[in-house]
Structure formats: structure tokens, C-alpha cells
Task: structure prediction
Amino acid sequence: MEALIGLFSFILGTVVGSFLNVVSLRHNTGRGLSGRSFCFTCGKTLSWYELIPVFSFLFQKGRCRACESAISWQYPTVEVITGILFFALSQKFLDFFMLGAIVGVGNFYGAMILSAMVIYAVLFGLLIAIGVYDLKHKIIPNKLVYIFILVAFIRVVGVSFINIFVLGDTLISVLPNLLSGPIVALPLFLIWFLSNGRAMGFGDVKLALGLGWMMSLWGALAALMISFWVGGIVGIILLFLFSKKITMKTEVPFAPFLISGTIIAFFFNINIFSFLEFFG
Ligand SMILES: [Zn+2]
Result:
């Protein structure tokens, strides 16, 4: 049963990933999300068997069937990454998932569990679309990041509501999580403000606001630390590899690091106290 849930989640993830490719490709192009996909080189409309996540790319050896031009590695990469994330989500919430299956979605708790899983799937889907877009265009699309902030805010309000009215927590005890968004965004805001937007884009500040509300305060702070470390390590590697091409002014999109840090902290259950334990 557990393997089946994992496999189903992975396949669902690759399908969602395929959709996210379309979202990040068509954003700001004037093309809506409806309308068939076509080859960017020869314009041939793609049929259903050319749109199967990962498999179509593998069977066609990464080329268009009509004109043989190379298809971007972005497609299968995003599909596989989304598949892995959905698989990881299903494993992280496996116990809840089983509980939800037992109590049923008509039950209050079952409905809560289902909504929590859908919310996380939507949040991670948005993060992937934002990360891909930022890597390609070095800008975070407003529309996507605003939806992300809104969904993350709904999550934290929903969780706080349940903590207070169902589990009997006090308002004080849920306050750190309600303030997590602004707290996590503050350091990035200061970097943005003090560098006049040169060291950090304002899009990263907005993204951090949503990331804070997506996790607990302690998890989100760990995610922020990890993203700076990953960014630093990748920055040093890039400097070694392309030392002639890179100057201090070379723009490196920060969103992919923020998103990697969040994924690491979220799935490995790392919070700021894990670091204190590790170093202390
Ligand atoms: Zn073609």
C-alpha cells in the first residue's frame, strides 16, 4: 500500500511537473494556459503521446519527431524533480494519509488532512514554477509569488486556528508561526534595502515572506540559513569554473537557493535548534 501511494504520488508529480513547464514557459508571453503545446522550432502541434511526462522525451531521444530539433532538458528535469517532491511529500505525510484514508474525507479530520496535503502540493508546485522562471529570466514573476504568499498565509492561519480551537493552544504559542513570514523576509529586505536592490531582488523578499508562512518559524529560519550556505558553495564553484566570465556584478538568481534550502529543511525536518544541537 505504501509503495503504491509513493508510486502514484511520483507519477502525479511528473504530470504536475509537465504542467509547471507550461506555466513557466508561457508566463508573460501573452499565451494563456489553454491551447495545445507545439514544437518551438517547426510549430507542429504535439499529440498526446508526445506529451507523456519523461517517457516521451526518452523515447524520442530528446528530439522533436517532426523536425528532429533538440528538446530542452528543462522538460524532463522539472517533471522528475516534481515527481520526487510529490513522492517525498507522500512519504512525509504517510501516517496522516493512512489516517485520512481510515477516517474518510467526509470527516472533519480527514478533510483537514486532505486539505493540508493539497496545500503543500500547491505550494511546492508554485515554488518549482518560480524557481524555473527565475533561473531562466532572473526575475520572480509577481503573479506566481503573490499566489504563493496567499496560499502559505492561508496555511498558517488554518494551522493556528486548529492549534487554538481544536488542540487548545494559546494565541501566544502560535504567534511565532504567524509572524514567521515577516521575520524570515526581514534579513532579505535589509539586504535589498541597504544594497539598493543590487545584492538582492525585491522578488526574493516576497518569496521569503511566503516561505516563512509555509513552515514553522524555526524551520523557516533553518531554511534561510541553508539557502545562504548552498548559495555560497555554488557561488564559489561557479567562480572557479567560470572565473573569467564572472564579475561581482554577475546576477545570480537567489530564488533557486531559497527554494533548495526550504526543500532541505522541510523534508529532513531541520530547524534552527538542530543546528544548535549540532554545534553545541
Ligand atoms: Zn519540431
Observations:
- The first helix runs from residue 2 to 26.
- The chain has a mean pLDDT of 89.
- DSSP finds eleven helices and no strands in the chain.
